[in-house]
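Re-running the complex after MR caught last week's input typo. The corrected sequence lines follow. Everything else is unchanged.
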Amino acid sequence: MIENKNEAGSRRVLLVGDTTLDPLGRLLERGQDNLLLRTSAAPYGQVYQILLDATHAAWAFQPDVLVVWTAPQLTLPSLEKLLRFEFDSTAAVHEAVLREAEQFADAVLRAAGRVGLVFVPTWLLPTHERWIQTLAWRHGVGITNLLARANLLLAERFSGLQNIVLLDAGYWQASLGRPAHDPRMYAVAKILYSQSLFEKAAAEMKAVLRGSLGLGKKVIVCDLDNTVWGGIVGDDGADKIKLGAPDPVGECFHQFQVALKALRSRGVLLAISSKNDEQFALSVIDQHPAMALRTNDFVAWRINWRDKAENLLSLAEELNLGLDSFVFLDDSPQERDQIRRVLPQVYTPDLPTSPSDLAPFVSSLSCFETTSLGKEDLERTEMYHAERSRKVVQDVGGDVETWLRSLDIKVQAAPLRRESLPRAAQLLNKTNQFNLSLRRLDEKTFWDWTEEPSHAAYTFNVSDRFGDLGLTGLASLSFAGSHAEIVDFVMSCRAMGKKVEEALLGYLLEQARMAGASRLTASPVDGPRNGPAKAFFAAKFCDGEWAIDPARVGVPPQISLFEVTLESESAV
Amino acid sequence: MDELIAILDEIRPGQQFSGAENFFDQGILDSLDLTALVAALETRYNVFMDVDEIVADNFRNLTAIKTTLARKGVKL
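Corrected-run output:
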């Protein structure tokens, strides 16, 4: 399982293939960042033996992640025949290849239960295999057509299992701009792929792993002048900046904004840090006809003459997110240098110098990887806007209790269901601050765990009069006789500061009691950033013990807690 | 030479490359490192090693690498 043994713990990756994959292993192990990998490349050419036999020596490595990277012409013997034109009927060859693909899929599915995560790069033919391009895509005849069907077959067969990720090797190859296969290295050491393809594969596998471990980025803070538009609006004037067609440079900046907007629409938060006059800059954003981004696409901004590091710190505080989830985009090398020196945890890439490269650059960033795409992602910016409205009311209202009452908070508790599993797993893996145990589990492992009779998991949907915060809480219990242990207690930072955690704990205590547990305990993990969770639980324990003191727990009167059962909805 | 050492260091960090007689006999590099080294040199110097040139002897120490590159017109 992909469990975090603490954030810095290393994960073990087993490489299985029909050619030498050791170069991939070396590249995966390289790097000094927060993702440490140890790899073991099994002897090549034993794919089926390893996948089907749980007692094979390769498994002694006890991998967390399994990579199964095969070449279609080696693993699908009938495809090799089609490639070499050694057949009587193309129809029969096509059928045989799909049968062989089924067999391969079955073997992967069998092995998937032994690890937390499986990576299967899609099948790829070397570009030097031209075959017969006139027929390549013809149904029932062509090799390109057949390979696409075989890859689709894998996608269909793996669709039921969340822990198998089919990686798009065709995308790797296309993005290289140089050969993905190296016939020389195959002759020398049975290394089928070029070093550059291995580099791309390692980078992509790391990006996907980071996403599934909650190490992805969440916010882009961008500069305005010469970043989202060409020119300096304060000097040039709103009608003179380069933005939008027919000016080609203006079109490039417009396309850059379109690319940023696509990220915003999939759940990445956008913010601004710019040295400008705030009112003027905001009016340009909302009124310039070629702006693809408007002020409501940004969750926050610092448009002022202050130091940018200071602005980033204050944005992190406002958004309640760690700086290590920030990406900073600025055309000025000096500003970038300063952020890199002062705030090294912020990802500050060099921006391309040509405006035409800006949109492709931002669209190719791999740091926003997510394992699912749900309502919470698609509506994230709107949720932050609702949060801003709440804060405004709080500032006006002054008294916290009155403010909380005015919010009309509703918490809906429900047992974890299949439908809510993707979001629940996302919350478990991405939450750093209000997280009791920092347990990181993929969907399958988490679901299997909750299915055990002595375990129970609950999800919490929070809403108030400003809007729906979505599924923002997750908790689980483990029962042993009259004792219940809180294993997971996770709350999105969006819900923090509203006493929602009190309602969650109140609900858990009630659940524990109903299951016959008279003692409820919790053991907060000492993580680098889960201070809020540690502090919350520290105030709930009986003196000197890990046991929750029931006298210190209760659903706050300002919060309405509902319990959603399978069919009905009833107030607790 | 410093450039070569930087390339080698990227492949196997923390090894004593300068002064070594034979990287492969001395266990500083292995056959997989050889393929990575060839790829790195090709990218850095825009050269192409033919399959019969990808043998340990051509890359056994700094001088040998320099000679191999010189054959391709790269002067270090």
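None of the earlier attempt is carried over here. The longest strand of chain A covers residues 467-480. The CA atoms of residues 306 and 473 of chain A lie 36 Å apart.
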